[in-house]
Amino acid sequence: MTASRIVFPPLSYVGWGALGQLVPEVKRLGAKHVLVITDPALEKLGLVEQVASPLRQAGCSVHVYTDVVPEPPLETGEKAVAFARGGEFDLVIGVGGGSAMDLAKLAAVLAVHEGSVAEYLNLTGTRTLEKKGLPKILIPTTSGTGSEVTNISVLSLETTKDVVTHDYLLADVAIVDPQLTVSVPPRVTAATGIDALTHAVEAYVSVNASPTSDGLALQAMRLISRSLRKAVENGADKQARIDMANGSYLAGLAFFNAGVAGVHALAYPLGGQFHIAHGESNAVLLPYVMGYIRQSCTKRMADMLNALGGNSSFLSEEEASRRCVEELERLVADVGIPKTLGGFGIPESALESLTKDAVQQKRLLARSPMPLLEADIRAIYQAAFAGAIVEPNNQ
């Protein structure tokens, strides 16, 4: 067995009230001119002021940048980087969901580099990152993306997505305060929660899984499966929000170290072509991908059944793995996410173009425990359209 490369961000604060560590950390980093990148909706809700006001009181100048949209296109990334380059900032803070945090990471690192963002993309870029960039603090306001602990910034292209990825994109400080997630509406809570669950599930079956990522992934599944329904039903449920924040954080660490695979590879084109939120793209595909690859990882899926609240004690691995897929399907349905591609308005005529784009996600597909070729990907999309789990031997 080869050695596993395990990377964690330098420093994290996780727990109710963790935002209280912001000012001490800004002082420790010696920052005076702060760029806060956030979603405009969070500014209207007053969440951004909870970040900016203490910093101003501590003597920092704070500029709040809100040109952030869900599933940010490459153009949005270029604008954020240009803005960071044009200011005299010494710290970047990302506040929000994955889109805001991804843009904050990108702006902080590329602020000290030349060239366009497009030149640093994973699939087509020709430049490499050579400097760490500005210090960055990441503060999630949803429990889902894990962006606060990863080295990836995701951008939407014309029909799919690509990433800028390097350890320089890791946060200097991650602050995960579940109190900031209480106002998140049910639909976003559901989508981001299934996103976090998908991170844990795919990390656990990844070909790059390790004992470390396994422990993180299984505990994330336990926390999320017991709390997501509660958080969707009652956003003010403090314990549910705490469990979801911790589960999302652990899932982020798990997938950062083990990687995600087929679900994400097939989800990217849904976001690129139809602008479906990333969490919902993952959610609608999760049972179909896991059902299709089940035979390649039956033991691991039996383990997952227990982590998801089931009991495999009196079941064969085969039966337990089937029950695991059923439990994933049930959880997605219980939190109100459509169970088919048609439920998102995607026509059957789009399945071929989705397949062609998903095949290009080789970085993600390489981690699947079952090789997913073009025919397999097409079969999974067809299953997700029809609403029926299929396996390679029963297509």
Question: TL;DR of this structure?
Answer:
This protein is α/β, with parallel strands linked by helices and 395 residues long. The chain is built from 15 helices and 8 strands.
Q: Can you characterise this structure?
A:
With about 400 residues, the chain is α/β, with parallel strands linked by helices. Helices cover about 50% and strands about 10% of the residues. The chain contains 15 helices and eight strands. The protein has helices at about 20-30, 40-45, 45-55, 75-85, 100-110, 185-205, 210-235, 240-260, 260-275, 280-295, 300-305, 315-335, 350-360, 360-365, 375-385; strands at about 10-15, 35-40, 60-65, 90-95, 135-140, 150-155, 160-165, 175. The strands form two sheets. Strands 1-8-5-4-2-3 form a six-stranded parallel beta sheet, sandwiched between helices. Strands 6-7 form a two-stranded antiparallel ribbon. A hairpin with a 4-residue loop joins strand 6 (about 150-155) and strand 7 (about 160-165). Helix 6 (about 185-205) packs parallel to helix 8 (about 240-260). The two termini are about 35 Å apart. The mean pLDDT is about 95. It comes from Bacillus caldolyticus. Keywords: NAD, Oxidoreductase. Belongs to the iron-containing alcohol dehydrogenase family. It holds the Pfam family Fe-ADH. InterPro entries: ADH_Fe/GldA, ADH_Fe_C, ADH_Fe_CS, Alcohol_dehydrogenase_Fe.
**Rounded to an integer, what's the Rg over CA atoms?**
20 Å
Mean pLDDT: 95
Number of strands: 8
Question: Helix share of residues?
Answer: 40-55%
Distance between the termini: 35 Å
Shape: globular
Count helical runs. 15
Q: Give the H and E element order.
A: EHEHHEHEHEEEEHHHHHHHHHH
Protein name: Alcohol dehydrogenase
Keywords: NAD, Oxidoreductase
Domain Alcohol dehydrogenase iron-type/glycerol dehydrogenase GldA: 12-178
Domain Fe-containing alcohol dehydrogenase-like C-terminal: 189-385
